Amino acid sequence: QKEVEQNSGPLSVPEGAIASLNCTYSDRGSQSFFWYRQYSGKSPELIMSIYSNGDKEDGRFTAQLNKASQYVSLLIRDSQPSDSATYLCAVNWAGGFKTIFGAGTRLFVKA
Amino acid sequence: GAGVSQSPRYKVTKRGQDVALRCDPISGHVSLYWYRQALGQGPEFLTYFNYEAQQDKSGLPNDRFSAERPEGSISTLTIQRTEQRDSAMYRCASTWTARADNTDTQYFGPGTRLTVL
After folding, report:
1. Cβ pair B116, B86 in contact under 8 A
2. B103/A104 touch (CB, cutoff 8 Å), yes or no
């Protein structure tokens, strides 16, 4: 089992739709979870962080965390073509300083 | 202020040569991470510094890889006797604080694209 798993995609949604991105992780003790966006040829940039079970909303983005199921998700509402990118799920490993990234999900938003 | 900078941006070297990759974090940032990113993959953790102390080097693939941050600011990742499999994008990231289970945003540099011929 990979430490952080994501569907590689690509995920294609029409403009204005909701994009749903999922991530599972193997370290049950992890407490900090992040979603990064990476445009082609660019560096990752943080878009959401979440530490408690439940939902966290920031504009068009909602992160959801379920520690019991070891599952993190990101919803993007009213998807725009500019949201087309790779979305990376990242988990801070318990008891240390290591951040583990998933392989990323490529999202395409069609105009 | 300025973001994280890395140099060189591109490095082409021959197999067996040593390379040194530099990372200059955001001024005042305490923590510094090194990652390796293959095409189509997420960043792979290599090592972590808290000021000048290397507190986690569990991701370094083998003893050809080493890193230092002697004054708690600029860091150098050195790869000795490079091999073709070392070809990748090497990125560093920095954060304001330094604690286990760091919740701070990691700010990534532009990366160094290493190609080993």
Report:
1. yes
2. no
